[in-house]
Design brief:
Elements (H helix, E strand, L loop, with lengths): L2 H25 L6 H22 L5 H17 L1 E3 L2 E3 L1 H18 L3 H28 L1 E10 L2 H13 L3 E10 L2 E10 L1 H13 L3 E5 L1
Antiparallel strand pairs: 1-2, 3-5, 3-6, 4-5
Helix pairs in contact: 1-2, 1-4, 1-5, 2-3, 2-4, 3-4, 4-5
């Protein structure tokens, strides 16, 4: 095949595969959507193709630079919100899409297509699995204002223990005649809701933020 047509075919395949992943991201309302994934995939393929055309061999320096550049894009997608970190999946997707683009650029179309199918399966199936796991081990911070009585703290601790909610970290201070405590816990969502109800029923618990 004519080299120009071969390279154009590679770019077209990169566009299609990037669009397949980008469409799923777009429908999931993620920051890196259709156009972003297409451009990353096509750009990685183009850099790889030109590296091969210029150096006449499968030079490793340009792909390494592509990965470094994509790393900056991925880092920009990661955000920290209090105790939660978001954007990790988006950053990982950007990284994989670039790898798929490079694979297309090297001419391994079947491998790139297989990787794309795997990414789509992961994005479609695993969020449900994540939700199921999160239901079993959600992490939250209970902020409680209670009477200035050590027995109340023992009751709260026992309440978490009896509800199979693990206390990972605790902070305690005294202010204005009350105990102000923070309980960073991990456990099933339903059990944590049960703890909330029982804390609200406790007359010696003055305030609760969850």
């Amino acid at each position: 095949m004519n080299p120009f047509l071969q390279d154009s075919l590679s770019l077209g395949i990169a566009l299609f595969l990037g669009a397949a992943i980008g469409m799923e991201r777009e429908l999931s309302d993620k920051a890196a959507g259709l156009r972003t994934n297409i451009l990353i995939c096509v750009g990685a393929a183009l850099f790889t193709i030109m590296s091969m055309n210029i150096f006449g061999a499968r030079d490793a320096h340009v792909p390494a630079q592509i990965l470094a550049g994509v790393g900056f894009l991925g880092a920009g997608a990661i955000m920290r919100d209090g105790e939660h970190v978001t954007g990790l999946t988006t950053a990982a997707t950007i990284w994989v899409v670039a790898a798929i683009g490079m694979t297309v650029g090297f001419g391994a179309y079947s491998v790139a297509a297989a990787a794309t199918v795997m990414v789509l399966i992961v994005q479609a199936v695993f969020p449900r699995l994540d939700e199921a796991i999160d239901d079993l081990r959600q992490r939250h911070t209970f902020r409680i204002a209670s009477d200035l009585d050590d027995e109340v703290l023992d009751e709260i601790k026992a309440l978490f223990r009896d509800s199979d909610v693990k206390v990972l970290r605790r902070k305690l201070m005294k202010r204005e005649g009350l105990y102000y405590s923070e309980w960073y816990v991990s456990g099933p969502r339903l059990e944590q809701k049960n703890v909330v109800r029982r804390l609200l029923d406790n007359p010696r618990v003055r305030e609760l933020n969850y």
